[in-house]
From TrEMBL:
Protein name: DeoR/GlpR transcriptional regulator
InterPro entries associated with the record: Carb_Metab_HTH_regulators, DeoR-like_C, DeoR_HTH, NagB/RpiA_transferase-like, Tscrpt_reg_HTH_DeoR_CS, WH-like_DNA-bd_sf, WH_DNA-bd_sf
Alphabetical list of Gene3D superfamilies matching this protein: Winged helix-like DNA-binding domain superfamily/Winged helix DNA-binding domain (1.10.10.10)
Keyword tags: DNA-binding, Transcription, Transcription regulation
Domain HTH deoR-type intervals: 3-58
Family annotation (PANTHER family): HTH-TYPE TRANSCRIPTIONAL REGULATOR SRLR-RELATED (PTHR30363), HTH-TYPE TRANSCRIPTIONAL REGULATOR ULAR (PTHR30363:SF55)
Organism this protein belongs to: Stakelama marina
Native organism taxonomy: Bacteria, Pseudomonadati, Pseudomonadota, Alphaproteobacteria, Sphingomonadales
Amino acid sequence: MHAAERERLILELLSHNGFISYRDLEAHLDASPATIRRDLSRLEGKGRLHRVHGGAELPGKGEDDSRRGLSGTPFTKSITQNLAAKRAIGKAAAALCEPGEGIMIDGGTTTLQMCPHLAPLGLQVLTNSLHIADALLPQDNTRVLVPSGTIFREQNIILAPAGEESMPRFYAPKLFMGAAAVGRQGVMQADVILVAAERRLIDRAEKVILLVDSSKFAMSSGAVVCGLGEVDILVTDDGIDAASAKMIEDAGVELIIAPSA
């Protein structure tokens, strides 16, 4: 594949949701990582894209991120939706933690439900969620770390501008994250800026554990964070349909179903 053809394909992929990860580029382009980096540098020099941690985005997008809200359901509304299922999922996910280990918890109303079950474990937790940090602070044995960045009020999460490194030097055996939707395309979020932020977390984790209630399988649109192949464990409730369960298991993902009753 010639350079001009690779550039055309990169820009086409980028146009779908405004962000493309290195992993997705490697999957679509018949080129080495070094060649892809040179292609991105060349396109950035032409002003066609902006290189960020984990991939590339459309130019100028990061400049607007700190001045706008995030797409998707506000946290205050989402927290009340499917609450029994989310509580069951959070409890099952917390049971995957080992005493004394370091973990990362991405912001979300389902991941928040892990917090009541973490107090006895003496964990070190990196989170970008002020809701999660607030829930963990009363736990004397839990050490809480947060990144730097801008606070997005509707979701109450901290996100750094695109391309800016804001995470502490922190790597963890487990990342617990949520999603707006899950389908054959992979794990999806409602906003492109969340994709870049979650890619930063994924790159720092040995194991990715996805927490989603069963309603998320009925949704099929959003910006793709990662393919199902990058998820190690998926925790959901017993409302998951047979086709979705088969899709997850066929992708080689361990499926944990938490009874919501």
